[in-house]
Amino acid sequence: xxxxxxxxxxxxxxxxxxxxxxxxxxxxxxxxxxxxxxxxxxxxxxxxxxxxxxxxxxxxxxxxxxxxxxxxxxxxxxxxxxxxxxxxxxxxxxxxxxxxxx
Length: 102
Description:
single chain; elongated; 2 strands; two-stranded antiparallel ribbon; alpha+beta; 5 helices
């Protein structure tokens, strides 16, 4: 259902009306699928609590000048910056999330 709506190019509201699906049901399944994906990737605590982390954006020139930069991976709109000494489990999780977005 989520994939069909995304591929249709329609807004969630328009797709739900067209396919006789309650918007609340759509959002319930979207949340359920997202949480399941995060649990499988190991990025959501078993408690199910969602937590937020602050991300900072730096100009590309600044990031390139930083010491300890191991690699920068670009995939569509995603940019994964890996620093020397990065935790292997975190790196594996990030790569898995990129694979799942394909």
